[in-house]
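Structure Section — protein described below
Tokens — whole-number codes for backbone shape
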Amino acid sequence: MQELCPCGSTLSYDQCCEPFIRGTISPATAEQLMRSRYTAYAKNEVNYILTSTHPEKRKQCDEKAIRTWSQNSVWNGLEILGKNKGEEQDSEGTVEFIAHFIENRIKQNLHENALFKKVDNQWYYIDSEVIAQKPFVRTEIKISRNDNCPCGSGKKYKKCCGK
């Protein structure tokens, strides 16, 4: 049985991101580069993460920190929420994504809008903007255990529908 690619494409790893990570072919779109970079984190392929970063931005990369994060996290999935340009004919594009992972036994999400540029027919990661999580807002009225049950029985919620 072939291993599914961590990027969530439903293809096997060897038919999806592995050729990009091994350097046998180059991603044709910004989304393919985004997916392959996520897979590189999941597979601890730090060299690919570095080489797929634009050469002018690599000096800002902390290889040790990338390796530590990659190795010490459990990568649970990638959601592509949207993209703007980044197709084969484009020279730049953005991909909005959420990367799901567990770090220090805590489920976490990284929601970003990443910028990619194509230079000499090669896509590179440039930078990203972290998108803050929206705070949870309760839309329904909170019912406490000792409130009257909203069903109209006249009983306390804890003795009626709150069982």
Summary: The first strand starts at residue 73 and ends at 85.
